[in-house]
Amino acid sequence: MTTPTDLTAALSIIVGATHLSTEPDVLAVRSVDWTGRYRGAAAALVRPGSTEEVAAVLRTCRDAGAYVTVQGGRTSLVAGTVPEHGDVLLSTERLTEIGDVDTVERQVRVGAGVTLAQVHSAASAAGLLFGVDLAARDSATIGGMAATNAGGLRTVRYGSMREQIVGLDVVLPDGSVLRRHPRVAMDNTGYDLTSLFVGSEGTLGVITGVDLRLHPVPRHRVTAVCGFDGLAALVRAGRMLREVETIAALELVDGRAAALAAEHLDLAAPVPADWLLLVELAGDIDPTDRLAAALDGVSLCGPPAVGVDSVAQQRLWQLREAMAEVVGMFGPPVKFDISLPLSAVASFASDAAALSEKTAPQSIPLLFGHIGEGNLHLNVLRCDAEQEAALYGPMMELIAAHGGNVSSEHGVGSRKRAYLGMARESGDIAAMRTVKAALDPTGYLNPAVLFD
Ligand SMILES: Cc1cc2nc3c(=O)[nH]c(=O)nc-3n(C[C@H](O)[C@H](O)[C@H](O)COP(=O)(O)OP(=O)(O)OC[C@H]3O[C@@H](n4cnc5c(N)ncnc54)[C@H](O)[C@@H]3O)c2cc1C
């Protein structure tokens, strides 16, 4: 039988002693989620420096009967990196190679531990653009974003991570390596395994490298923040604007969040309103007239704030970018990442506010997110652990009752695994379990994630 000491000694030989830690302080920091709400316990942290080292680590842990939790930037908002079984934490932070940008094929190959901000810089230096962006860009890694099929601020234009991934390297739970790097645009040879691993949340293998699709940079951009008295009117405008050619962003911000930003961050809202909509168009021809035409006839509660240069545009984005800070103002919020039919957004918002008030009378429910896809984040501030326990299930029921999905872009992680049945039929879940069992028969990889 392998003892914990044997295991750490074997892992140390694979990665080198400096890349293995069993220090309680280090493990405690790595065992808590981004929000600080969910905490687990780990036996060791291991930081392999190559695909081959990842493979050897996985084989060794599997043979020792140890559980492994994969960690990228640890920005998961569904507790996807919290170890529940005294796991070995496998961090991708040393997989940071960035290849040359291929400006002809518009691609770049990067290691799984490269951050989103580093990809943006590499693409920009080559005169190109990466199509996914999100507020955790300085920490979130490409491997973690691929594993969760992350969406974000540009999904309305470029789609989510799945649309950006051309190929990848994955270490399977048995330690074998799958490499898919298609050299041609059309490839119908068998199963789309790349897609299978994107969004699998580390349950089927460890992604170690990704080929990313890049895009041309639009020459012109115009940004506006529009104010609305009611959410239904904003949603109507959003439904129309998402169809406008050259749409580049369509973001909802709750007026209550804007008020908190003004009070606590000294950040004035671009327009005074109960609900705000940030809309951006970008293209090779100046889209300012097109935006003006699109907004003509929309019932705004006042003139929009418009930015035609990058300084003004950054100013207009400030409030949306401050949302992570706003929702953390009263301690960790209770987070719901929801996908809703646009027709249900306004009624859900008022029902959710009523439910929050009933369950946690002092709470502040704030809604923001990517309205183009009905992909929204409800954050309930000032809600303690007891109130969270009472609120979480009924809120999930409410989302389902409005025709929504209990997870939109953050994935299932461990926080939502009990609610998988609200999003998928039993036959579907059974097929997913069959895939998991085929690749990871002992279930040692990311054991807390996705399935109950
Ligand atoms: C301020 C803030 C804003 C955010 N905004 C958005 C947003 O707009 N859109 C959005 O989609 N998400 C958003 N998120 C959530 C989060 O950033 C994404 O889920 C991101 O994709 C996670 O990347 P990560 O490297 O931090 O992954 P981690 O949090 O480290 O891991 C996420 C999951 O993927 C697994 N994993 C990590 N790396 C790998 C790998 N290499 N191979 C296999 N499995 C792996 C982990 O085990 C875990 O289950 C936000 C988070 C924060 C804190």
For this entry, give a set of tags.
452 residues, alpha+beta, Uridine Diphospho-n-acetylenolpyruvylglucosamine Reductase, domain 3, Alpha-Beta Plaits, seven-stranded antiparallel β-sheet, four-stranded mixed β-sheet, binds flavin-adenine dinucleotide
CATH architecture of the domain at 107-216: 2-Layer Sandwich
Mean pLDDT: 96
Reading side by side through the largest sheet, how are the strands ordered? 14-11-13-12-16-17-15
Main sheet specs: 7 strands, antiparallel
- Cofactors and ligands: flavin-adenine dinucleotide
CATH class of the domain at 107-216: Alpha Beta
Cα(first) to Cα(last) distance is 28 Å
- Helical fraction equals 25-40%
Q: Number of helix segments?
A: 17
Number of strands: 17
Write down the oligomeric state. Answer: single chain
CATH topology of the domain at 107-216: Uridine Diphospho-n-acetylenolpyruvylglucosamine Reductase, domain 3
Structural class: alpha+beta
| Approximate strand percentage | 15-25%
| Low-pLDDT runs | none
Please give the radius of gyration in angstroms: 22 Å
Shape: globular
What features would you describe in this structure?
A hairpin with a 4-residue loop joins β16 and β17 (375-381). This protein has 452 residues and is an alpha+beta fold. Helices cover 35% and strands 21% of the residues. The protein is globular and about 70 Å long. The strands form 4 sheets. The chain has a 7-stranded antiparallel beta sheet, with helices on both faces. A 4-stranded mixed beta sheet has the order 1-2-4-3, with helices on both faces. Strands 5-9-7-8 form a 4-stranded antiparallel beta sheet. It contains 17 helices and 17 strands. Among the domains are: 107-216, Uridine Diphospho-n-acetylenolpyruvylglucosamine Reductase, domain 3 (2-Layer Sandwich); 220-324, Alpha-Beta Plaits (2-Layer Sandwich); 330-409, Alpha-Beta Plaits, CATH 3.30.70. The site of flavin-adenine dinucleotide has 38 residues, from β3, α5 and β9.
